[in-house]
Amino acid sequence: MYRVLVCDPIAREAIDLLRKNNFKVDFVESPAPEELCRIIAAYDVIIVRSATKVTKEVIDRGEKLKIIARAGAGLDNIDVEHANKRKIKVINAPEALAVAVAEHTIALMLMLLRKEYHACRSLKEEKLWLKKKFLGEEAFGKTIGIIGLGRIGSEVAKRCKALGMRVLGYRRHKLEEKARELGIVAAPSLDFLLSESDIISIHVPLNKETFHMIGERELNLMRPNVYLINTSRGAVIDGKSLLRALENNRIAGVALDVFENEPPREPWEWKLITHPRVIVTPHIGAMTKESQRKTGLIIAQKIITTLSTDQ
Ligand code: MLT
After folding, report:
1. How close is the Cα of 105 to the center of ligand 1, in Å?
2. How does DSSP assign the chain, residue by residue?
3. Is 233 in the active site?
4. Which of 86, 250, 262, 293 is catalytic?
5. Domains with residue ranges and CATH for the chain
6. Is there a catalytic annotation at residue 166?
7. Which ligand 1 atom lies nearest to the CA of residue 286?
8. Distance from residue 29's CA to the centre of ligand 1 (Å)
């Protein structure tokens, strides 16, 4: 009987499916690194979301480990290179959450444009009828630059087209082909996209190449009244440079669902989060009932299939 360690909450149905298939499943919520290193030796499979870090040390302590399953898309909390060296399979479920993240991105974009967060807050908390203060802007006719045209970026592009926006897309590989398929404009370079867009939305994974890919130089290329949205990973943007740009009135508004530290802990992060032109959510892009259910079931099914074909 294979033993599965679940470290971050996943859909109940996924656990039931594993148990029905004769897996012994234990749940230890967000174990501290030392605890994880201590218990991992007993398990064949570990399932994590973003909170638990599967480091080189954890992998080395996992003597029986065969699968590291990420119930989600991003693999930046897993030492994939080391897992590959140890011939441990790393699986994820990016197909389950693209719609949820794309819908959240659109919600944030519209909230930035129409100032709904501040309008709602002033009415509920201060009981102020500030109708004239909340003159917003329309998405229709605006140019959105989408950085990264994978599953999520593509879903965002489709929705922006439906809103009547001009959609510019950029990615390093097979850009022309993807842009044609989506019916959007391929930006000849990242710099072009940055300087041409009214709204910029980031949809890239976090890796060595994308770490702080939006820094001071890139922020300076953007239009002074640009809106910036990040629902990918916090560290893709150099947050301190972003804060400086906001303080220097270089940006009209920012929406962040992701942060360099989650939960945030540095004073500069809290300054960024509480800045009046920044709206924030606590990494809820993929948090829909539908996407969580799908993610859990896809991961459980992939574990069952992988271990039954390996036998
Ligand atoms: C993911 O990569 O799966 C998403 O960002 C959602 C998450 O980590 O919670």
Report:
1. 14
2. --EEEE-S---HHHHHHHHHTT-EEEE--S--HHHHHHHGGG-SEEEE-SSS-B-HHHHHH-TT--EEEESSS--TTB-HHHHHHTT-EEEE-GGGTHHHHHHHHHHHHHHHHHTHHHHHHHHHHS----GGG-----STT-EEEEE--SHHHHHHHHHHHHTT-EEEEE-SSSHHHHHHHHT-EEPSSHHHHHHH-SEEEE----STTTTT-B-HHHHHHS-TT-EEEE-S-GGGB-HHHHHHHHHTT--SEEEES--SSSS--SHHHHHHHT-TTEEE-SS-TT--HHHHHHHHHHHHHHHHHHHHHH-
3. yes
4. 262
5. 3-93+290-310 (3.40.50.720), 98-280 (3.40.50.720)
6. no
7. 6
8. 17
Reported pTM: 0.95
Query: What ligand 1 atom has the least distance to the C-alpha of 232?
Result: 5
Instruction: Report how far ligand 1's centroid is from the alpha carbon of 215 (Å).
Output: 23
Mutate which of 155, 262, 283 for ligand 1 pocket (most atoms within 8 A of beta carbon): 283
pLDDT tens, per residue, the chain with 311 residues? 999 999 999 999 999 999 999 999 999 999 999 999 999 999 999 999 999 999 999 999 999 999 999 999 999 999 999 999 999 999 999 999 999 999 999 999 999 999 999 999 999 999 999 999 999 999 999 999 999 999 999 999 999 999 999 999 999 999 999 999 999 999 999 999 999 999 999 999 999 999 999 999 999 999 999 999 999 999 999 999 999 999 999 999 999 999 999 999 999 999 999 999 999 999 999 999 999 999 999 999 999 999 998 65
Does residue 105's CB lie within 6 angstroms of at least one atom of ligand 1?
Answer: no
- Regarding the beta carbon of 94 and ligand 1, being less than 6 Å apart is answered no
226 CA from centroid of ligand 1 (Å): 26
